[in-house]
Amino acid sequence: MNRLLSAGLAGLLTMALALPALAHTGHAGHAMFQQGLLHPLNGIDHLLAMVAVGIWAVQNGGRAVWLLPASFIAMLAGGAILGMSGVELPAVEAGIAASVAVLGLLVLLNRRVPVVAGMLLVGAFAVLHGHAHGAEMPQAADPVLYSLGFLLSTAMLHGAGIAIGLTRHIPRLLSAGRAAR
Predict the structure, then answer these.
(1) Rounded to an integer, what distance in angstroms lies between the CA atom of residue 135 and that of residue 76?
(2) Distance, CA of 72 to chain centre
(3) Measured between alpha carbons, how far is residue 157 from residues 7, 85, 142 in Å?
């Protein structure tokens, strides 16, 4: 099961990272989308935080499995709009670093919180990550295509975290099923 999951995740990341040959004109939109798609994958801080959101969502269980990633993505978009608009936020880089530390600790400690509190926490971190994505958008990029790219990439990273979180629970679920027989 773990090999299958690993192969699937590797395949998804390979497809996301594959750059098409742009030998013909009219591919600027694809390049803008790809720049956005690749942006979250270019920094370990973004990778770790976004995967951690997925893992932590599974650890919280129930509605949190989809509400935490959905909150992150919605607030990521809002933060990106702020960054693209030139709105300054204090301590964005420190906040992004804190998101990695805090989310990592929550995962490590398997700390569950009420769904709304989790949504607020990941949402606050997402605004900072989104601001960084928006502020670092190439000047020539189309904001919509670039944003669609990093939002899709973020959703994929959350999905990878959810998959990791689910595979960590499989042995416990299997043993509980055997005990019930």
Answers:
(1) 12
(2) 8
(3) 15, 26, 23
pTM, whole model, 2 decimals?
0.78
> 69-123: per-residue pLDDT in tens?
999 999 999 999 999 999 999 999 999 999 999 999 999 999 999 999 999 999 9
58 contact partners, CB below 8 Å, separation of at least 6: 65, 161, 162, 165, 166, 168, 169
Residue with tokens 């694809």: 30
Q: In the chain, which ranges are E strands?
A: none
| H or E element in which residue 168 lies | helix 143-180
How far apart are alpha carbons 111 and 99 in whole angstroms?
A: 15
Place of tokens 């690993």: 6
Half-sphere exposure of 7 (CA within 13 A, CB side): 4
SS3 106: helix
Residues 6+ apart with CB under 8 A from 172: none
Question: What's the mean per-residue pLDDT of the chain?
Answer: 84
CA 82/CA 126 separation, integer angstroms:
12
**Residues 68 and 53: beta-carbon distance below 8 Å:** yes
When computed from its CA atoms, the radius of gyration of the chain, rounded to whole angstroms, is: 18
